[in-house]
Write a structure and sequence with these properties.
Elements: H1 2-20, H2 26-40, H3 42-57, H4 59-69, H5 73-87, H6 95-115, H7 119-122, H8 128-131, H9 134-141, E1 149-150, E2 154-155, H10 162-179, H11 189-211, H12 215-273
Antiparallel strand pairs: 1-2
Helix pairs in contact: 1-2, 1-6, 2-12, 3-6, 3-12, 4-5, 10-11, 10-12
Length: about 270
């Protein structure tokens, strides 16, 4: 069932791209598929990032509540729920996109693992239209034509590719660092946890990428690059919104001040006439 819903469609997307692109470079097909997947998930990721930004903005208030409740978990939970309700924030909203992405990630493990074993393993999973592509037909008839390489240089079927693993880990580090709150209280337990995750996830990504076929760290590196771009655009948009909000607030303050002065001036004029 899982193969039918996730693995087989992704395998067909990969080999459709592989069959139609000039040069039929398997690594380029992996990169193009990664870009398509990331852009398909763009709205989901945007929602996750917005939720994370909202939660980060609440950190000072959350820290204040924890300090005031002094370890009383029941009171702390009640006050936090009131805060989330007041600010109209669902603290679990950022988890949903991760849950949605998980099946795709697991499926991609299977896709890259099988695809790099050769066309003999892949052919039974291909749909008719993909299998009938001229290049795919040639590869099926002559399996030696299939090469799981990037630009004819990087063997994506091989494990222990230290360069791709390090690139995947480095881009993961920057991606996590980019959305980690910078101005936090050093004594805040969540700050220590965030700092640990900033290093832990990239190291884990690099290690897993090193131990598996090189197609996976290639996918991670490209995927992380797109995530960095998305986060940059979203955070820039958040800054623009904040600046617009400041301008609107300033205009309102100036308007209120002007109205107050006019009212005061009218009052004085009336008193003089009286």
């Amino acid at each position: 069932m899982f193969d039918t819903i996730f693995v087989q469609p992704l395998m067909n997307v990969l080999f459709f791209i592989y069959g139609i692109i000039p040069g039929h470079d398997f690594g380029v097909a992996v990169i193009i598929m990664t870009v398509l997947i990331r852009f398909a998930l763009w709205p989901v990721m945007a929602k996750q990032l917005h939720s994370q930004k909202k939660m980060q903005a609440l950190q000072p208030e959350i820290a204040k509540i924890r300090a005031e409740t002094k370890g009383d978990k029941q009171q702390e939970s009640a006050r936090l729920m009131e805060l989330y309700k007041e600010k109209e924030i669902n603290p679990l909203a950022s988890c949903l996109p991760l849950i949605i992405q998980l099946p795709f990630l697991i499926a991609l493990f299977a896709v890259f693992s099988r695809a790099t074993q050769g066309i003999e393993v892949v052919a039974p999973l291909l749909y008719g239209p993909v299998k009938n592509l001229p290049w795919i037909q040639q590869v099926i008839q002559n399996p030696s034509l299939f090469s799981a390489e990037l630009f004819g240089i990087v063997n994506l079927a091989a494990k222990n590719n230290i360069i791709l693993a390090l690139i995947a880990g480095a881009t993961q580090y920057y991606q996590v660092w980019q959305i980690t709150p910078k101005n936090v209280d050093a004594n805040d337990p969540s700050a220590a946890a965030n700092k640990m995750m900033t290093w832990m996830f990239p190291l884990l990504t690099a290690w897993i990428g090193y131990t598996l076929v090189a197609a996976l760290p290639l996918y991670w590196a490209v995927s992380n690059g797109i995530s960095i771009l998305q986060q940059t655009l979203i955070m820039r948009g958040e800054v623009d919104k904040m600046e617009e909000a400041k301008v609107v607030t300033k205009v309102r303050e100036v308007g209120a001040s002007s109205t107050a002065k006019k009212t005061k001036s009218k009052g004085k004029s009336k008193r003089k006439k009286g």
